[in-house]
C-alpha cells in the first residue's frame, strides 16, 4: 500500500509543518512513510504523487484530510485521482464527523480555559455544499453532547454566519464568555481570522494530535484490510 494524505494547503509555513508532523505521526503508526499532497496553494498535487507511482504495481490509498464531505472530498480529490492514471486507488472517507475528532476539539477547549457556562462556536473553514453543512452540524451536536452545552456552527470563509457574527450574536443574547473552537486541521489564514472574531478564547487547530493521527491511520488500515483495492474505487464506509 502507498499511503497518501491529501490536505488543502496553506501559505503559512506553520500550517505546512503541522500537516507534515501529522503525516509523520501516522507513518509511525503504520510503520511506513506517508506521502503528503495538497489540492490548493502549493504542491505536490495528488495527481503528481499518484502519477509518479502509477507504474509500480502497488495499490494506493488516499485519505482526504478534511473534516467534512465538501467539494474537495466529493469532487476535487477524485478528479485528481482519475487524472493521475494510477490504476489502483482507494479513497477513504473524510476525517469528520467523527466522535474521536470531536473529543479532540473538546480537549482543546478545556486546555484553552473553557469553563462550564461559556458559549461555544465551532469554527469551520466553510462550505456551500449541503452535505458538508450537514456534516458540520453533526460534528457540532457531537461536541455539544460532550460539553453538555449548546454549540453554534460558524465559518471563517464561505458560508453564514461568519465567526465574528456568531460571536456578536451570542453576546447580544447575553453570553458573558464566548469560546471559539477551531475545527481546522492546521494553522493558516482561516485560523488567524478566528483570533480577530472578538471571542474570549480561541483553541488551536487539530494539528498532529495523537488521537487525530490514530483516526487517519485507521482510515488507511481499514482501506487496506477491509475494502477491495481495485481500480477506480472511491468508496468506503465509516
From TrEMBL:
Which terms are listed as keywords in the entry?
Lyase, Metal-binding
- Source domain of life is Bacteria
Coiled-coil intervals, chain numbering: none
Pfam families from the UniProt entry: CbiX
* GO molecular function terms noted in the UniProt entry: lyase activity; metal ion binding
- PANTHER family, sorted: FERROCHELATASE CHE1, SIROHYDROCHLORIN FERROCHELATASE, CHLOROPLASTIC
Q: Mind telling me what this protein is named?
A: Cobalamin biosynthesis protein CbiX
Originating species: Mycolicibacter sinensis (strain JDM601)
Amino acid at each position: 500500500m502507498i499511503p497518501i494524505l491529501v490536505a488543502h494547503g496553506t501559505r503559512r509555513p506553520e500550517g505546512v509543518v503541522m500537516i507534515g508532523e501529522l503525516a509523520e505521526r501516522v507513518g509511525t503508526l503504520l510503520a511506513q512513510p506517508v506521502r503528503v499532497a495538497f489540492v490548493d496553494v502549493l504542491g505536490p498535487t495528488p495527481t503528481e504523487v499518484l502519477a509518479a507511482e502509477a507504474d509500480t504495481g502497488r495499490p494506493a490509498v488516499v485519505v482526504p484530510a478534511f473534516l467534512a464531505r465538501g467539494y474537495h472530498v466529493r469532487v476535487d480529490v477524485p478528479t485528481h485521482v482519475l487524472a493521475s492514471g494510477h490504476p489502483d486507488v482507494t479513497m477513504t472517507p473524510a476525517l469528520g464527523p467523527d466522535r474521536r475528532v470531536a473529543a479532540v476539539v473538546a480537549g482543546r477547549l478545556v486546555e484553552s480555559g473553557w469553563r462550564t457556562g461559556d458559549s461555544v462556536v465551532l469554527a469551520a473553514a466553510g462550505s456551500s455544499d449541503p452535505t458538508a453543512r450537514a456534516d458540520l452540524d453533526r460534528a457540532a451536536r457531537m461536541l455539544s453532547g460532550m460539553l453538555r452545552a449548546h454549540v453554534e456552527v460558524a465559518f471563517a470563509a464561505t458560508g453564514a454566519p461568519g465567526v465574528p457574527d456568531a460571536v456578536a450574536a451570542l453576546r447580544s443574547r447575553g453570553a458573558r464568555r464566548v469560546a471559539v473552537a477551531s475545527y481546522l486541521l492546521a494553522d493558516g489564514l482561516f485560523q488567524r481570522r478566528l483570533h480577530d472574531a472578538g471571542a474570549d478564547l480561541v483553541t488551536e487547530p487539530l494539528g498532529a494530535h495523537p488521537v487525530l493521527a490514530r483516526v487517519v491511520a485507521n482510515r488507511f488500515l481499514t482501506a487496506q484490510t477491509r475494502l477491495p483495492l481495485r481500480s477506480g474505487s472511491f468508496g468506503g464506509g465509516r
